[in-house]
Design brief:
Strand order of the largest sheet: 3-9-8
Largest sheet: 3 strands, antiparallel
Helix content: 10-25%
Strand content: 25-35%
Oligomer: single chain
Shape: elongated
Radius of gyration: 22 Å
Mean pLDDT: 82
Length: about 160
């Protein structure tokens, strides 16, 4: 498995114009400082060279997503679920949306800002949910709106 990961990393790094061995995967070989045994953990390591090659820069893994993330990175039981956030307002009655007052959602989805603007009007819980989902779809937000205990729930369409 490590050989497959490194092969894929090398190909993607080369395609992006980086040195193919800049990032390498390995099992163990680090001490994280936690109480967990690190000898069997998947590690991604920056392979800095002292041979005049320019490896300077900032390297960051923003996150690990997908169904493999739960198998390889997270100690979890049960099926993985998408990330979500739940509002605090009971929306089971009617909701008045006013232009420029309470009509805009701005969210960061996978490092990309997404913005939706709801049409002004009076909504019941069903029509409000429909309007929000319509706008989310229109901007390819990869997020779905639903209700949890009468409050708005925004969920990622992807696990991880």
């Amino acid at each position: 498995m490590i050989q497959e990961i490194n092969s894929s990393l090398q190909e993607k790094l080369t395609n992006l114009g980086f040195f193919p061995d800049l990032v390498q995967a390995q099992i163990g070989g680090i001490t994280s400082g936690t109480t967990e045994d690190d000898s069997d953990k998947l590690v991604f390591k920056i392979n800095m060279q002292e041979n005049g090659r320019n490896d300077s820069g900032t390297y960051r893994i923003d996150g690990v997503r997908g169904n493999a993330a739960y198998t390889l990175f997270y100690q979890a039981e049960g099926e993985p679920t998408p990330s979500y956030t739940i509002g605090i307002v009971d929306l089971s009655g009617t909701t008045e949306i006013e232009q420029g007052v309470n009509d805009t959602f701005i969210m960061d989805v996978d490092g990309v800002e997404k913005q939706i603007v709801l049409q002004p009007g009076t909504y019941n819980s069903t029509t409000l949910l429909s309007e929000i989902n319509s706008q989310l779809t229109a901007v390819n937000a990869n997020v779905t709106a639903s209700y949890f205990d009468r409050r708005l729930k925004l969920s990622s369409n992807e696990v991880g």
